[in-house]
Amino acid sequence: MRLPQFVFETVKNHTKTKKTNPHLLLYRYLYGGKSDSHKSSNSDSKTTTELKNNFIYKADTNILKHIRARQNAAIQQMKAYKPVSKTFQLVDRMVVGLGIPSSFENGLLLDWIHGVPFINGDAIKGAARSYASERMQENETQPFMKIFGTLKKEEKNTDQVNAGKVIFFNAYPTTDTNLFDIDILTNHYPAYYTGQNSEAPGDWHSPNPVVFLTIRPDVKFGFTVASESEELATQAMDWLENALIKRGMGAKKRVGYGHFLSSDADLSDNSVSEKKSIVIPALDESEKLIQKIKGLQKAQIPGMAANLVKEIESIGSPEKQKDVANALILQMDKKTRKRAKDKLWMKKLNDFQG
User: Fold this and answer.
1) DSSP letters of 271-313?
2) Which residues form the CRISPR type III-associated protein domain (predicted)?
3) Which of 21, 71, 240, 243 could lock onto 115 through a cystine, CB 3.0 to 4.6 A?
4) What is the pTM of this model?
C-alpha cells in the first residue's frame, strides 16, 4: 500500500533528523538528551528543563503545511459557504491545554494524530461568544443567536434551542518551525500550599520552579469562519478579532499570555478568501513597535516592559526611540509607573525621553 505523501515525508524526515510527532514525544516517550544513548540509565537524572528543551529540539511540525492545505481545500469544497479568514500574531507566549495531564503535571494542546499545536474551533467559538455576549448592542441579539445558536448556554426550553449558522474552524500556525518555547512558574512556598507545613510562608522556604511548554511569542495563526451568510461570517470574525486582541486565548491571560494583534499579512497562498488584498504601506520598526504597544492592555505592560525597552534600544534613531518611549509610558497607568520608578527599564525609558 502506498503511503500518503505527507506520511512518507514525515517518516523520511524522522530517519534523517530523529525528529518525531510532538504529541507522542510529550505525552508518551519524552526523555532527556539529543540522542538515543540518553534513553537509558541517566534519563532519570535529567531535569524538567532539559527534558522540555529536548522536546523543542525533537518536535517535528513540518506536517503543518499539509494540514493547512487540507483544511483550505475542504473549505473551498463548501460551495454554499462564504469563508472569512484573518491572520493574528501572538504578542506574548500562549498555552492552550495547560490542564491536560502529562508526565510534567501540565500539558499543551497538540493534535492527537499529527501532534502539531493548534487552537480548537470550540475554544475559538467560545472566546468569540463570551466577548459578544457581554459587548453586543441591543440590536445585535438576532445576529448573535444566528451565529452562536441560543442566547443562553444553559437554555432548557427546546423552542429556544437553535444551531448556530457559523462554523469556527481550528486555527493553525502559518509557519511550520520554531513554534515552541518554555517558561517557568515558581512556587515560593510549596510546603505551605501542599499542607506539608502548617507554618506561615516565609523567606526560609525553598522555591519550587515549574517548567512548562508554551507557544513562543510572534507566532502567527490563521483563523477562518464560514457561513452561508457573508454578513454573519463577517460579524463573527469581528467579535472573534476583539476577543483575541482584548481577552486572549488559553491560560494565564491576565499576565499577558495568549493575546494577539492583527497581522498585516494575509493567509498568503493558503488563504481561502477570494477577496482582493489591500496593499498597506510598510511601516518602519518604530511605527510597528508603537502599533504593538497601543494594542496592549495596561495589565500586560509590567510583564512585557523590559523586553519592549530592549526593542526600543535596537531602533538606533534617538528621535524614534523617544517617540516609542512616549507611547509606552502613555500606555501605562499611574500605579505601574510608580512601582517601576526604580527599575532599570523605567530609567532607560526616561533616558529615551530626554
Assistant:
1) ----SPPPP-PPP-HHHHHHHHHHTS-GGGHHHHHHHHHHHHH
2) 88-260
3) 21
4) 0.65
